[in-house]
TrEMBL record:
Gene Ontology molecular function: cysteine desulfurase activity; pyridoxal phosphate binding; transaminase activity
GO BP term, example: cysteine metabolic process
Protein name stated in the entry: cysteine desulfurase
EC number: 2.8.1.7
Organism: Clostridium aciditolerans
Length: 381
């Protein structure tokens, strides 16, 4: 395996304890959760509940029943956006959203006359929370904001946005894809009503896991209907959580793995993870600036970003840079628009895209050194 610098897409490597736990579940338990009364099924229930508890512990949620599992944050965001917003509502969002937010909003704009306002931000993705207050209208029902951009890395002032949302009695939905597990999040302190998360990035869990944590009373219609393992005579989804939103056999193996990777994250501590990543980001920003003709997008300040750095090398097409990094140096990075066209519009890179490195907990300064050396020789040619 070469040097993996695509942790913003999914984290790699995964902790052995997580892989071993999933293997143990599949070899020795096997039963699904929420559907049986025999010992193995009860054990599967316990493991799934443990994961809900771990999520609460990480984000300061108060009720494990309000942790809903989905297959990824895209499904979480779609569930909340589609299940909460009604015809003619107004929503405020950032100008740097991932398509997991942007497309469901645009679809509702087309189909249900949803009104969308995007908060202004600099071309480095820096938002001033006060600008959001000015966008509020009588029909504003939701603010949906990414916690950190997956292209520029910029961390958004979620705590301040939360205060504004609370003051105006507007719900706040946060996309934590790039921060959960990498940056401290407290749904109570930050007044986050719904925190959407994905399991396979900095939570170090397997792909196919994600969810949302409900921290308020809010009427959200479920996206799916189907079996929940109980109350089978009801013709509609039960009205209690989590069953209301978890139709169909869950990804028990994935959730068991996620529970174990969360335990691993807790053992290290998110503060320590952030400390290590911030120092690597700082190092990467410094070293990358040595490369001839490099243009780095986003704030050049490690305290303002997560481990996401996007750049271009002069006129060399981003695809060529990424291809050479892979083919010649075995370095894995992501290239293109990163499913976030609005961020690239801000950066002026909608046509050419950019190269993005995603720094994770298991990266080292050595990895950055090898990357910089490779970029220097690509740039020289
Ligand atoms: C900010 C942001 N939101 C949403 C997503 C979608 O994540 P998933 O593919 O796990 O649903 C990503 C993934 O890259 C992301 O970076």
């Amino acid at each position: 395996m070469g040097i993996y610098l695509d942790n913003a897409a999914t984290s790699y490597p995964k902790p052995d304890v997580m892989i071993n736990k999933m293997t143990d579940y599949m070899k020795n338990i096997g039963a699904t959760a929420g559907r049986g009364g025999y010992k193995a099924a009860v054990e599967a229930d316990r493991l799934v509940y443990f994961c809900r508890e771990m999520i609460c512990k990480l984000f300061n949620g108060s009720d494990p029943a309000k942790v809903i599992f989905t297959s990824n944050i895209t499904e979480s965001l779609n569930t909340v956006i589609n299940g909460f917003l009604e015809k003619g509502d107004h929503v405020i969002t950032s100008g740097i959203e991932h398509n997991a937010v942007w497309r469901p909003l645009k679809t509702l704009e087309r189909d249900k006359c949803l009104e969308i306002s995007t908060a202004p931000c600099t071309n480095e993705g820096i938002t001033n929370a006060e600008d959001i207050e000015e966008l509020i209208r009588p029909n504003t029902r939701l603010i949906v904001f990414t916690h950190a951009s997956n292209v520029l890395g910029t961390i958004q002032p979620i705590g301040e946005i939360g205060k504004i949302a609370k003051r105006h009695n507007i719900k706040l939905l946060v996309d934590s894809a790039q921060t959960a597990g990498a940056y401290p999040i407290d749904v109570v302190k930050d007044n986050i009503d719904i925190l959407a998360f994905t399991g396979h990035k900095s939570l170090l869990g397997p792909t196919g896991t994600g969810g949302f944590l409900i921290n308020c009373d809010m009427c959200i219609e479920p996206l799916k209907a189907g079996g929940t393992g109980g109350d089978s005579t009801l013709e509609f989804q039960p009205d209690y959580s989590p069953n209301r939103y978890e139709a169909g056999t869950p990804n028990v193996a994935g959730i068991v793995g996620l529970g174990e990777s969360l335990k691993y994250v807790h053992t290290i501590g998110v503060d320590k993870i952030r400390e290590k990543e911030e120092s690597l980001i700082n190092y990467a920003l410094k070293r990358l600036s040595e490369v001839k003709d490099i243009e780095i997008y986003g704030p050049k300040d490690s305290t303002k970003i997560v481990g996401v750095i996007a750049f271009n090398l002069g006129d060399i097409p981003a695809e060529d840079v990424a291809h050479e990094l892979d083919a010649k140096y075995d370095i894995m990075v992501r290239v293109g628009l990163h499913c976030a066209p609005t961020a690239h519009t801000l950066m002026g890179t909608l046509k050419k895209g950019a190269v993005r490195i995603g720094i994770g907990y298991f990266n080292t300064k050595k990895h950055i050194d090898v990357l910089v050396k490779a970029l220097k020789s690509i740039s020289k040619k």
